[in-house]
Design a protein that fits this description.
Elements (H helix, E strand, L loop, with lengths): L37 H45 L5 H10 L4 H12 L22 E5 L8 H8 L2 H4 L4 E3 L9 H4 L4 E4 L1 H4 L9 E6 L7 E5 L16 E4 L1 H13 L10 E4 L13 H8 L4 E4 L1 H9 L3 E6 L16 E5 H6 L1 H20 L3 H6 L5 H14 L9 H13 L9 H4 L5 H4 L4
Parallel strand pairs: 1-2, 1-3, 6-7, 6-8
Antiparallel strand pairs: 3-10, 4-10, 5-8, 5-9
Helix pairs in contact: 1-2, 1-3, 2-3, 4-12
Length: 442
């Protein structure tokens, strides 16, 4: 314990560089006392318990405040919708950007708009329609990420419909770690450590297939810094913008890349909140640089490419393609996940979802221009224009296979951040009954 460079924990017992982990035993004592360590260890435990109680009280207060904010926002949006000032798409976008849970937002939109059934391209019901309440609900943890795009495209291009599943895409909730727990969706595109965050030791969830391969985030730095691609020493003294769960992985990349956040004065700062709706989600990286709240940002390919094309940033790390510490490539991967209950009770639906993703991979690899068609209803215009280029670039990584190395890497990363006590068996995490579908030919 201490404030020096060699201290493992800080004054509140938090392990430096790892979120959500405290140590409360005799190992944290800066110097071992000459007497019996029993009493000091009890004192440390009592101190830790008070910190945890304080943290819980703060979290409950924040949760209550957020619920009140959501109720006020819902009333405002409902009034605007009832007055004809807001359509369904705008309602859902603003609700999602403000952190309203997807199921709650859809229910509010139904009530405020009282709209008839809306049929999308390919005949599937659009999110928020009354018939959509009986459809399979699908979402991804990052709407504008090209790495999750195959799942979005599987809905929008009608591949779920072709497999006999009535499917609707809904915008993700503010807490992506609770999607499977809350039951808002049936199929979820997310990294394992995000999707299973609220499942103790990852029990209750299953990976059905991969949406793409390897760790898929990028680190872009302000263009005027003159940083050389791959040179992590260029990050010393910089502020890096990152959102919650991706920021956890970023810290691991930095540490495994040889940086000491305290010694090298590297700060990971929260990503700015978009001023309005989904249209600004793709520009969060640009926003961080423009506002001056960060010198670099950690984000998906869409955010990085938009900033680079505007001349505001240069690419420092493309982890998927080998930049940064070699081990980081296997920290995670975008996966199609579902609850164990769905897999057990509706195996035919789970198999159909895998087939839909596999066929979407094949279609996008053969014709990346389909991406713009798939994105048109959901993506903002600027991102819609760019998605085809990014899909063409990432197409070699569109592979549904879930390898044992991928699962082992994901487990070891989850263990390093305190989610798992030890790596889990492959068969416990992956729905292996669908493996044969990964290599299906068109």
């Amino acid at each position: 314990m201490g404030s020096g460079a060699e201290a493992v924990v800080d004054a509140e017992l938090c392990v430096r560089g790892i979120e959500g982990l405290r140590i409360a035993d005799a190992s944290i004592m800066p110097a071992i006392p000459a007497g019996n360590t029993n009493a000091p260890s009890i004192m440390i435990g009592e101190f830790a318990s008070r910190l945890l109680v304080k943290d819980r009280a703060v979290m409950e207060a924040l949760r209550a405040e957020r619920q009140n904010e959501h109720q006020r926002l819902a009333a405002s949006l409902s009034a605007r919708a009832a007055a004809g000032q807001l359509d369904r798409r705008g309602f859902l976008r603003l609700a999602a950007a403000a952190g309203v849970g997807s199921a709650y937002a859809v229910a509010l939109a139904d009530q405020a708009l009282a709209a008839p059934v809306a049929q999308g391209r390919g005949g599937h019901t659009l999110a928020g329609s009354s018939a959509g309440r009986n459809a399979m609900r699908i979402t991804v943890s990052d709407v504008v990420s090209p790495s999750y795009f195959p799942l979005t495209a599987a809905v929008e291009l009608g591949f779920f419909k072709a497999e006999g599943l009535d499917a609707e895409f809904i915008f993700p909730s503010v807490d992506p770690g609770r999607v499977l727990v809350d039951g808002d969706v049936d199929f979820y595109g997310a990294s394992p450590y995000i999707a299973f965050e609220c499942l103790p030791e990852w029990r209750g969830g299953k990976i059905l297939c991969a949406l793409s391969q390897y760790t898929y985030w990028f680190l872009a730095v302000r263009a005027n810094l003159g940083a050389v691609k791959g040179d992590m020493s260029a990050l010393k003294g910089l502020r890096i913008s990152a959102s919650g769960q991706p920021g956890i992985l970023l810290r691991k990349v930095l540490v495994d890349g040889g940086l000491d956040l305290e010694r090298d004065k590297v700060q990971v700062v929260p990503a700015p909140r978009p001023p309005e709706g989904l249209d600004n989600l793709a520009r969060v990286g640009i926003q961080a640089l423009t506002e001056g709240s960060a010198d670099a940002f950690w984000g998906n390919a869409m955010r990085a490419e938009l900033a680079i094309r505007r001349g505001m940033a240069t690419m420092l790390l493309d982890v998927r393609r080998g930049d940064g510490p070699a081990v980081a490539r296997r920290y995670t991967f975008p996966a199609l996940v579902a609850s164990e209950r769905l897999v057990a009770e509706r195996p035919h639906a789970a198999a159909a979802a895998v087939r839909a993703v596999v066929k979407t991979h094949q279609a996008l690899r053969a014709d990346p221009s389909l991406a713009a068609k798939a994105a048109r209803r959901i993506f903002p215009p600027e991102a819609t224009e760019l998605i085809g280029t990014l899909v063409a670039r990432d197409a070699p990584f569109f592979d549904p296979t879930v390898s044992r190395d991928a699962v082992d890497g994901a487990c070891r990363f989850a263990q390093s951040i305190g989610q798992l006590p030890a790596p889990l068996p492959y068969e416990q995490i992956v729905a292996t009954q669908f493996q044969h579908l990964w290599t299906a030919r068109p």
